[in-house]
Specification:
The chain is of the alpha+beta class. The longest helix is centred in the first third of the chain and has 25 residues. A six-stranded mixed beta sheet has the order 7-6-9-10-1-11. The C terminus is likely disordered. The protein is built from seven helices and eleven strands. Helix 1 packs antiparallel against helix 2. This is Stp1/IreP family PP2C-type Ser/Thr phosphatase.
Length: 259
């Protein structure tokens, strides 16, 4: 049984929460879907982009038939994300208020304990188990490109003045590439989806220790991750979704704290 929870917070500085998450079961197919989107584009635009993205992906996948292969799930998730790109881009082109709006997205579609992760931008997915924490996504950012090419060090990347510049986002261009990968959760293992409001402020080792904390309810662990980001500065919106195989938790819960 995959247990899930998601939580979001506006943070300590921002006036609008442009993050949006959705986690739930898709009926009648029995799949588990999770999405985190981190919108950008200023007042109205960022939260519109993330909302349209989540709504489109959920609507497109809600009718999935039971028993699809992982290959079919991968195609369905990719198509839904690409459709969301079309919806957001078209809205941005047709209304000056939303011009150049966009969003990151990271999504998982699980059939039982196996599934597909799709992402665009710098929202991330991590797999956590007793052996450690593994990042499953590769940031689409200028700083990550500089890091991979050896032009800057990991230490320089953490404080680079252009670390928030994306090289790929959903909705900013008519066409976009979706990165796709597979994931499987054995008993006791967990998956984290998060916006950079968490990953930029909480070290991966701290995420791992929090998610694996014995005896803690899944909801409490999600809320602790949010509090840790807030206590470390909280300069951005913070969103996290957790998926766990085999420990006690709530099947679905939504907590949105607004200040």
């Amino acid at each position: 049984m995959i247990h899930t929870v998601h939580a979001t917070h506006i943070g300590n500085v921002r006036s609008i929460n442009e993050d949006l998450s959705w986690v739930g079961r898709i009926k009648p197919g029995g799949y588990t879907l999770g999405i985190v989107a981190d919108g950008m584009g200023g007042h109205l635009a960022g939260d519109t982009a993330s909302r349209l993205t989540v709504e489109t992906i959920v609507a497109d996948l809600s009718g999935l038939e039971p028993g699809l292969s992982l290959e079919a799930c991968e195609a369905a998730l990719s198509d839904a994300i690409l459709h969301a790109n079309e919806v957001v881009y078209r809205q941005g082109e047709s209304d000056i208020r939303y011009h150049n709006m966009g969003t990151t997205v990271v999504a998982v579609l699980l059939s039982g304990a196996e599934g597909i992760i799709g992402h665009i931008g710098d929202s991330r997915a991590y797999k956590v188990d007793s052996d450690g924490i593994e990042r499953l996504t590769d940031d689409h950012t200028l700083v990550n490109e500089l890091l991979k090419s050896g032009q800057i060090s990991p230490q320089e990347a953490g404080s680079h003045p252009r670390r928030n510049v994306l090289t790929r986002a959903l909705g900013t261009d008519a066409e976009v590439k979706v990165d796709l990968g597979r994931v499987a959760l054995n008993r006791g293992e967990a998956l984290i989806l998060c916006s950079d409001g968490l990953s930029n402020f909480v070290a991966e080792a701290e995420m791992m220790r929090t998610v694996l904390k014995p005896g803690a309810a899944l909801e409490d662990r999600a809320h602790k991750l949010v509090r840790m980001a807030l206590n470390s500065g909280g300069d951005d919106n913070i969103t996290v979704a957790l998926f766990e195989n085999g420990r006690a938790g709530q099947d679905a819960a939504t907590k949105e704290w607004v200040q």
